[in-house]
# Entry
Amino acid sequence: MPADLVAAPEAATHCAYCALQCPTVLRDEGDAVAVRPADPAGGGLCQKGWTAPAVLRAPDRLRTPLVRGPDGRLAPTDWDSALDLVAGRLARLRGEHGADAVGVFGSGGLTNEKAYLLGKFARVALGTSRIDYNGRFCMSSAAAAGNAAFGLDRGLPFPVADLGRAQVILLAGANPAETMPPLMRHLNRARLVVIDPRRTRTAELAALHLQPVPGTDLALALGLFHLAVTEGLLDEAYVAERTTGFDEAWRRAVAWWPERVEGITGVPVADMREAVRMLAGADRRYVLTGRGAEQHSKGTDTVSAFVNLSLALGLPGTPGSGYGCLTGQGNGQGGREHGQKADQLPGYRMITDPAARAHVAGVWGVEPDTLPGPGTGAYQLLDSLGTPGGPKALLVFGSNPAVSAPNAAHVSRRLAALDLLVVADFVPSETAALADVVLPVTQWAEEEGTLTNLEGRVVRRRPVLAPPPGVRTDLDVLHGLATRLGQPPERFPTAPRTVFEELRRASAGGRADYAGISWERLDAGEELYWPCPADDGGARHPGTPRMFLDRFAHPDGRARFAPVEDRESAEVPDAGRPLLATTGRVLAHYQSGAQTRRVPELMAVAPEVFVEVHPDTAGRFGLTDGAHARVVSAHGAVVARVRLVESLRADTVFVPFHFPGAGRANLMTGPALDPVSGMPEFKLAAVRVEPWSESS
# Structure
């Protein structure tokens, strides 16, 4: 255990799961860890938060390194042997095929310190450009749209508590009542407009539910923008004073009159008009997007269209109103700010920027021209594994792409084609089961560090347990591999606080500037939102809870409208596959389910994969409630139990993505990507659904 990592019998920390990062108190009670909300008056935890300590003592917890032997089985070994083996094979592959023969796949669940050091390890110790992370599957489309519109991407550019004073909130493709239930205490005073093909738990709470055909969100957003202008609801003073590009955006949207949009989306004109009037008529109003808007081959344009709507109504940068994106993963925000994304260096600096390269190289003690250029996005990286010119080895930290990646059967074949697959995790995930080497690492309650939540606030993670014997931190793993690859030991510290101090220097002056944030300030109870530059003349910077109040982050201080146009999705129904399948989450599970499927209480609630089908659709295709069916796309088939849902669209089926094996929802999702963000089209696949039994 690093010298600055000391477990205490009771620790104030944060939840293991989503980007809300609810504050909790953990207590070691010997045979179990108890959890309670740090501020019960502020709201409780969700099912996942209450049961998170169960994963700490999962019966199949990884406790020793594993190496695949000649018999094809994973067998225990010691740490030195495992790290020697990995480093030796990495060095050989790099020597034979070049630095890009090794890839790295990170996670939006890693702490800031681990994400930072992983990016540094890839670019300095390995010299590879082939690094990306599972956050590419989360909110990369919103990041691209936010950077284009505002010059900077922070999920919520205002404190989440501001939502509690809203009068109207439009939620486009977000279901927080299931994905992050504690957020609902901030939404329960507002009238909600929910855009979702499903009648979700969030939609049930809405004043107005718009239920479009899957894949038509962009057309709907264009129609809402059109109505804002033609109904005389445009905030002309705001548009003139604080934005640019309206005329071109309007030229694209002028053709999207409401009757045309109704014909494409199925959303009645009256409901569209009511949604816009609700937003325009409120003093405090917000537009929030989620994965439902983003996870499409046109996700960036879709989010941009919702940003256009918010700009037309004068929301962003206005006190009491705004636009934001609901980040999903626990450190989805910080995870992409500090260098594990293919095109970025720490501080949200772009890797192609010579000044950014010089600054970061100076902090790292290397020459700028030794840093590689930008790599490819997550799916392109996975798709290239084991191919000519692609990586021959992959290191995976905190991710489970065998379940979470689109076109999952193909990705599993690519993982199997590698010369070397190394997985660092704390449970034997489906990806770890494919690995040549498995390295057991610490969990959330056993480690120290920081994370950045969905509102851009940096929070502290503190340990309540010592790691089990034989388990190391990810920082220890990176240090061990880096030194074996010839790096000086001090370049890859193992103490999280030391890493964070370096992160502060590396981020200084960047868009995501953490230079003024210190563990001491966080431990003293300060709530610090980036950007938080270094002290200026002895005055501590207070952080930036609310962004864009005076100007946006573009050089001229103005936000940009985006000229977007709808286009057909990558897949459309046909006679052989007449339905549209969409994927998503359920209340009891999180991400690929590698953690939550190990909690008996959660499995009792949601034990297996299911497919939601409208009763009329079930009758049409011979499906029976409670029986099994196969959901078949051009890419693969999912076997799931049928669940009849009368509120579902008759042209749509829904499958949650938390389950393994033949129940992997991503067996049916395809390789189509957003051309700007690299986001896969998780939310749409043309399918047929047919009865299935063991004898089929």
